[in-house]
Automatic annotation (TrEMBL):
Domain SusD-like N-terminal: 31-238
CDD domains: SusD
Any one annotated GO CC term: cell outer membrane
Gene3D superfamilies cross-referenced by the UniProt entry: 1.25.40.390, 1.25.40.900, 2.20.20.130
Pfam families: SusD-like_3, SusD_RagB
Entries under SUPFAM superfamilies matching the protein: TPR-like (SSF48452)
Cell compartments where the protein resides: Cell outer membrane
Family: Belongs to the SusD family.
Location of the RagB/SusD domain: 339-478
Protein source organism: Candidatus Sphingobacterium stercoripullorum
Protein name per UniProt: RagB/SusD family nutrient uptake outer membrane protein
Organismal lineage: Bacteria, Pseudomonadati, Bacteroidota, Sphingobacteriia, Sphingobacteriales
Length: 478
């Protein structure tokens, strides 16, 4: 193809945007990620490699990724939330209008290319760097690439556990070679769903193996780490219906863990802390990285600027569906993270998991992987492995921490309870839409039901990419 026909995505991928170099890994989150240096310089030193990797973390913070959409859209598109009408933000997503969906394609592939450049630089370094440091960078890079590919697959492809074959266009393109000149640009053909998951598995296996020989110095849980790689593996395996792998990886992640499981007493207070004690991997925001009053999670979810505020602030567009709120038992401590709003939202229940808890308006760290998810992943897998008592033990771990009595039943109602506790525990953290999708379930909501066979279940691939490469198939009916 000619240079003028290459999409903007591929041209921008030729030069890596990375943050300024720094003196030690301890400063990884103290830099301005918006400044950049040329990739040819960045990847010639230890500082440059670290800076390139920081750029990946910075892209994950974007509002189209974990800064807002990976959490808020997973609620707006599904049945946990309703739109308040305070702003047009996310109103089309809440109504499941055509094309109003996740839009993280470009963000992810920019990041993947940066990771590939880091991996290439390490492979070409010929023992230039200390082994422990290099292994830590390898571990982070493979972990992040697996996370990115899984997020792409969740948004743009069917999950292995629930596929409509006649509409299946495959997984996502697997970009595994660093692109820093035109000769390395490949075609954008989508890999199969099976091959996409094989690659994610391979990256996670490589990450875990690398971390086993790494220094893993500092910054837990703000960077990729061995526990996070295993926790992510348990999630990926759940989407793949690989039940024993879910159990094995959850067991590994929970053994010798650094996270601290919340208790019935401190559950609500833990959500007010800058870093959540349960976090296994959490994105940390500095004041200069504040997403702001239009698109932050705080602004999206709450009418208050701070927990004790009584004045209405702009936006506050995604509120709690009363039908969802009614699922909580009266004595469930998790109800404490929901409050009635103020001003325009005084009649709405709002979620207070993100409420300027870093001390600055609209500034919140975002847990990506936390301990409670592991118990719920494992409980669901145990059920499918017919290890019902183990399943019940895990779901009761979550119930008891919520202040609820043990669940006693060992029949099909047990799976319903697992899924209910998953919905209640992980609400507004970016799971509901994807859980319904991977289970092939319909989305029932007042704004209009969305059956599993509806084409709007999958996000549209950006038109600019489809038009450039004829081998990249668009999702059905877009």
């Amino acid at each position: 193809m000619s240079i003028k026909n290459i999409s903007s995505f591929w041209i921008k991928s030729l030069i890596v945007g990375v943050s300024l170099t720094f003196s030690s890994c301890e400063k990884i989150l103290e830099l301005d990620p918006k400044q950049s240096i040329d990739s040819s310089t960045a990847l010639e030193s230890q500082d440059g490699i670290e800076s390139t990797l920081i750029s990946v973390y910075s892209r994950l913070q974007n509002y189209q990724h974990y800064g807002r959409d990976m959490l808020a859209l997973a609620e707006a598109l599904s049945d946990n939330a309703i739109h308040t009408g305070n702003s047009s933000h996310l109103i089309n997503e809440a109504a499941n209008n055509r094309g109003s969906h996740f839009d993280l394609w470009q963000n992810c592939y920019y990041s993947i290319n940066e990771i590939n450049l880091v991996l290439e630089a390490l492979e070409n370094s010929a023992g230039q760097y200390a082994e422990g440091w290099a292994n830590d960078i390898y571990g982070q890079a493979y972990f992040l690439r697996a996370l990115l590919y899984h997020n792409l697959a969740r948004a743009y492809a069917y999950d292995p556990t629930a596929i409509i074959q006649e509409r299946n266009k495959g997984g996502v393109p697997l970009m595994l070679t660093a692109v820093n000149d035109l000769s390395k640009i490949g075609e954008l053909k989508r890999a199969s769903i099976e091959d996409t998951y094989k690659q994610i598995y391979a990256d996670l296996e490589a990450s875990i193996a690398s971390f086993s020989g790494s220094d893993e110095q500092g910054l837990y849980p703000y960077k990729g780490n061995s526990y996070a790689a295993k926790a992510l593996f348990s999630r990926v395996a759940l989407y793949n219906g690989d039940w024993q792998k879910v159990v094995d990886m959850a067991n590994d992640a929970l053994s010798n863990k650094k996270s601290v499981f919340s208790t019935v007493v401190n559950y609500v207070d833990d959500w007010k802390k800058e870093t959540h004690p349960e976090s296994i991997f959490e994105l940390r925001y500095n004041e200069s990285e504040n997403i702001g009053s239009d698109r932050s999670l705080r602004a999206t979810y709450t009418s208050r600027a701070f927990y004790e505020s009584e004045n209405f602030t702009i936006q506050a567009v995604i509120a709690v569906n009363p039908d969802f709120y009614s699922l909580f038992s009266e004595d469930d401590v998790r109800k404490g993270v929901y409050r009635k709003g103020v001003g325009n939202n005084q009649s709405y229940w709002e979620v207070y998991k993100f409420i300027s808890k870093n001390g600055v308006m609209n500034l919140d760290n975002v847990p990506v992987l936390r301990e409670s998810e592991l118990y719920l992943n494992r409980a669901e897998a145990y059920y499918h492995l017919n290890q019902l008592e183990d399943c019940r033990d895990d779901v009761n771990t979550i119930r008891n921490r919520a202040g609820l009595d043990d669940f006693e039943t060992l029949d099909a109602a047990l799976l319903d309870e697992v899924l209910l506790q998953r919905r209640l525990e992980l609400a507004f953290e970016g799971h509901r839409w994807f859980d319904l999708k991977r289970r092939g379930e319909d989305i029932i909501k007042d704004s209009g039901n969305l059956t599993f066979d509806d084409y709007r279940l999958l996000a549209p691939i950006p038109d600019r990419e489809v038009k450039i490469d004829g081998k990249l198939e668009q999702n059905y009916n877009y």
